[in-house]
Amino acid sequence: MDNPRFDELRELARRLGLDFFEVMFEVVPQDIMSEIAAYGLPTRAGHWSYGKVYNRQRVHGQMGLSKIYEIVLNNAPAYAFLLDTNSEIANLLVAAHVYAHCDFFKQNVYFAPTNRNMVNVAVEHALRIDEYIDRYGLDRVERVMDIAFAVDRHIDFHKGLVRKSYPTRQVIERERKIHTYADLFGEEELSLTKVVIGDHFPPHPEKDLLWFFAHYAPIEPWERDVLEIIREESYYFYPQFETKILNEGWATYWHAEILNQYPGLSPSETIDFSVLHAGVVNPGHPMSINPYYLGYHLLVDVERRWDKLYAAGKSPITGRQKLFEIRSQDNDLSFLANYLTQELADKLELFAYGYACEHGPQGTKKCQKCGELTVMSRKVEDVLHSLLAPRYNYGVPRIVITNVSDDGSLLLEHERNDRGPLDLKYTEKTLEYLHELWRKPIHLKTFNNPGEAITLTCTASGIEIMK
Amino acid sequence: MSDIPWDLRRRALKDSLRHDKRVKEAIRQNLKELIAEENIITSDGRKLVKIPLRYLDQYRFRFGQMGSGTGQGKGHVGEVIARDGERSEGIEQPGDQPGEQVYEAEISVEELTHMMLEDLALPWLEDKEAQQITTHTYNFDDVRRKGSMANLDKKRTLLENLKRHAAHKEPKVGAFRDADLRFKVWSVREEHHSNAAVYLLMDRSGSMTTERKYIAKSFFFWLVRFLKLKYHTVDMVFIAHDTEAQIVPEQDFFTISNSGGTMCSSAYRVALEHIQQYHPHARWNNYVFHFSDGDNWHDDNSHCKALVTQLLDHVAMIGYGEIHYQDESTFYGWGTSFNAAWSTLHTELSTIAHPRFNTVAIKQKADVYQALQTFLGGREGAGSLSESGHITPSA
User: Fold this and answer.
1) Of A230, A241, A430, B394, which has the fewest beta carbons less than 10 angstroms from its beta carbon?
2) Is residue B164 less than 8 Å (CB to CB) from chain A?
3) Does B102 touch chain A (CB under 8 A)?
């Protein structure tokens, strides 16, 4: 879209130190906005579940329950979509906001491994899936997609998208020094020891369930490909998940800064802008946290604190420089853990809430306090815990594959110190999905509500739970 | 900015259709449970009903409900900020609130009725006798060059205009001539209808609890809908009885207060008299359905049998449904079901060997479905159905 003021904002943003890919702006109607929001990546392969989200999103949009002003895709060039009913001032705010997001995409270390050509890659994925639908039928392809989506967040971001197969079992000889500092004493004798590698399968607890099933399950090549496609898209979205607060805070900080410095606003536009900005950073529902609100205030607070330190000669960098450092190095976990102070938590009136009694969420009342949610704590460490816990591990339970036994049965383990017990009904259904791929029995060790160890076993004849 | 014709790239519509299809499938798979869904049965006149579907979840490993989270605002530590079920929608704590996300599907009662019919494989109930009523229906099913301007077929006219211009190498819509005009024309079709009368008999004695009546109500609800698809008019006669029977208006039928003992024959007698007077067999397809808990006065049973046998000469079908379950828990299917003994009324009635007389036992909600199938689905294959004239579904 041609808006000369966008160009002015872009130049201003660059002058202020933001560094971003080219941004392609598209103005789209409400329905398309809902569609893009439902898909996340508008070019990716279709699936009925997007239809479900789209229907809800569209109805909400039409009823004015939720309005999406803008969506931006991490890509080079970046694509930004603006709602066609946005006012001029809303578009200016959004443009500045988008430039800052794109700076974050380009400069934040967690985004470094992401594919900047994802919009096109997703098109290729979609074409492949269309081809599979032609060949194998919609029902079969959808089924594999359903299964893949069930575990799409169980990836190992640190091992990366492209991985080698596990080593096969072999005995190798490895040199070993007689003792650690032998060379210092001139005793350079080495001894050879026999080491068995690849003896245990998998060689280490495997977190990347999608990769494991794509490589080791007895499935057809096209089914592997469907799993890999969904895995790749999941990798693409992971950095956005783990930087939600920081990324939104950064974009909000900068749209405020850029528009404040932008000389081209009329007085009435300045007022309209302030109203819009106040709406973006409103605290929201008392029982949830608006990432724009928290991220923005935390960044402003850090800037103030570091400016003070700098002025006192206690910091070599200014507040603004500190913010650029955070934008490059942090994700939500480190950003919150390192910079949220008790003072700010108090100022923002943050609290951790939970059930008042130890019975937790239960259908039947066991005591007077059952079912009551109360303010549990306002201490910063408790608030932090409540903020960070759901942001860990892509928000899903930590489940790893620990063993494949001789008869081919698979053992999954849910880590004992995870946030809480699993939703059993969902777990059973998910195990049934995985069993469709693995075809041999699957065991899952986990724990129930009182904390007793339980094992779920999924075989062709169904699910069994044993204590 | 590129001028992308957004309207041509509606892939979400495709996926939303796929989703709708899955909703339909989910409904189809769960008809048995939905059949007694309160939302539907009480939909009085509403065309669209909302039904909860718990089958469209996308399963994944997730935490059980923990109820913890972060909030902001006033409130001292320990202060209650919400109670279960009070949290408003729209809160999204990532991965934190599995909760009960029940998908509510919206569907028209008519469509649901068709699904039921398909699934139950109900025969289109046969016409019995002379088709005594003729009606005319008008269908616009042809297009001509002459006609009344009121019936102008605008779309076709536009197309003709466009075609004519295109033939002159000017592909546009231009000046209209008479030759462009197209009119919709109707034809008259004669339709013959036969009518049905349904006699709904229900025990209202003290032993018929609200739940039991509800079962009868769900059954009648669907029955009437099926019959309306087939017959031009469906007369419904509601007969409530304890020791005496009377014809009551529909709105009172299901809410009528409990009282007294039970004499089922009274209802059959009233039905018989009514049929003879108003719905003679020669012109009406009469259906009689009777719901009771079978707790009949013992010496009345033989009267019932005699009356049923007599009624069979006047009606297309008689169905007797006996509702008996121990308590609510077995009714909803989570208690231990017991094998209820048939009542003596049933024992008596079941000696009537007649292909047009059926009985069912209803022990739980899902059995309503079974009842419909037995009563309505069985007629085509009546021969194979029962040598003794009834079947007893194993619930």
Assistant:
1) B394
2) no
3) no
